[in-house]
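Hi all, posting the design record for the shared folder.

TITLE: backbone redesign
STEP: 1 of 1
STRUCTURE INPUT:
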């Protein structure tokens, strides 16, 4: 069971004792991502994530790496559009030392001007790497365009232009305004005693306070129809079709998850079987959902030879119409629910997964659902619910598309209009 507590300074904590393991996973969750940036700040949240590993008042970047390596532990971080997470996983007997490193990184980052300049080139290379990967760019370019009139449409990494304007003072000011006790939660799962863990977290982080009040910057976002085409010197064309999706806490989210699994979420899905297995037209084809606090998107991806695009679009359109008109057989729904429940339960056997689930839930929802609650909601979904979810997300009148790669001789806008 996940227990929610609060440190002396107001930071919320999600703790789960798992006495039969020998590890502890620990995460620091900051409700700050690219969505919380103003246009001239775009990319600074991700930049700060990098800089946290570049040294503190007490440790150099090398010392941070060497201390964690010496523990045989893992330490990493990532930034999304809505939050940043720093996490570690170590043996229970090494947790105190890992916590000392993690709290030092959070509370006393150095942000040295020389390190900021060096890291700028690293991040510019990261931006260029994504731009050189059409199978990645096709997703990001489309979503950036769909949310184009809000900060949700800004890229997580920022742009070469915005990154170039960042200096150490600018980064520190943003960190001090946006890393605050009011928008940070901690999460730990593993072999520890609740009271002992609370004492350690209070000692390490409970005395930290900001002088200035927290002033969040958020913008509402809504789906807008988009069409993106980018020519790249590659053999294939990568295509993404997108539709208005469901927000993170929508009542139909579990029905939509089951629909996605059946429609394009695996090797037995309708799309994979029809387009790849039966017709051999693509190597990779799948669907997926992306959910935010107030909006979402449902996407279909396929990579193909350009001269196969017309037939691929025709098959996708046919499958879309089929799943909106005829419910999936109840037996297939039950099999899919069992698959999802099994994957979920197996995932909970990892302390890292359990820490991640609780931390993200507490940060974004303000509460944590127990495993049995989630399983019960999955098992309650009916064939009619899945049909309703299919109709809710596959709204062709609001379809967007992106095509990245070899576009020569193919009018993707015309294909979209013809088949959808």
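Okay, here is what came back for every position:
SEQUENCE:
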């Amino acid at each position: 069971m996940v227990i929610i507590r609060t440190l002396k300074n107001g930071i919320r904590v999600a703790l789960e004792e798992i006495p039969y393991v020998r590890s502890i996973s620990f995460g620091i969750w900051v409700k700050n991502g690219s969505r919380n940036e103003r246009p001239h700040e775009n990319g600074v949240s991700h930049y700060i994530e990098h800089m946290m590993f570049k040294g503190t008042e007490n440790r150099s970047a090398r010392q941070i790496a060497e201390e964690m390596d010496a523990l045989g532990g893992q330490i990493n971080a990532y930034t999304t559009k809505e939050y940043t997470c720093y996490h570690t996983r170590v043996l229970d007997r090494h947790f105190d030392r890992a916590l000392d490193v993690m709290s030092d990184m959070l509370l006393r980052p150095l942000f040295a001007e020389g390190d900021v300049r060096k890291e700028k080139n690293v991040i510019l290379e990261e931006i260029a790497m994504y731009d050189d990967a059409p199978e990645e760019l096709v997703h990001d370019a489309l979503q950036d365009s769909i949310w184009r009139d809000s900060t949700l449409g800004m890229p997580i990494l920022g742009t070469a232009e915005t990154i170039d304007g960042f200096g150490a003072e600018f980064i520190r000011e943003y960190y001090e305004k946006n890393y605050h006790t009011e928008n940070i939660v901690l999460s730990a799962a593993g072999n520890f005693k609740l009271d002992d863990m609370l004492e350690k977290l209070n000692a390490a982080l409970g005395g930290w306070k900001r002088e200035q009040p927290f002033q969040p910057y958020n913008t509402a976002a809504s789906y807008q129809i988009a069409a993106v085409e980018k020519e790249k010197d590659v053999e294939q064309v990568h295509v993404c079709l997108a539709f208005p999706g469901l927000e993170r806490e929508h009542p139909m989210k579990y029905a939509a998850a089951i629909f996605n699994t059946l429609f394009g979420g695996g090797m037995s899905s309708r799309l994979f079987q029809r387009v790849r297995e039966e017709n051999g037209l693509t190597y990779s084809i799948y669907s997926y959902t992306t959910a935010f606090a107030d909006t979402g998107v449902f996407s279909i991806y396929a990579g193909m030879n350009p001269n196969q695009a017309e037939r691929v679009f025709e098959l996708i359109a046919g499958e879309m119409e089929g799943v909106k008109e005829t419910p999936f057989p109840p037996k297939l729904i039950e099999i899919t629910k069992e698959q999802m429940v099994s994957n979920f339960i197996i995932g909970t056997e990892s302390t890292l997964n359990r820490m991640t689930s609780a931390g993200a839930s507490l940060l974004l929802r303000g509460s944590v659902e127990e495993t049995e609650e989630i399983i019960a909601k999955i098992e309650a979904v009916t064939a009619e619910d899945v049909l309703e979810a299919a109709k809710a997300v596959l709204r062709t009148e609001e379809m967007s598309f992106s095509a990245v790669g070899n576009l020569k001789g193919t009018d993707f806008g015309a294909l979209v209009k013809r088949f959808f």
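COMMENT: The chain has a mean pLDDT of 95.
Let me know if anyone wants the other runs.
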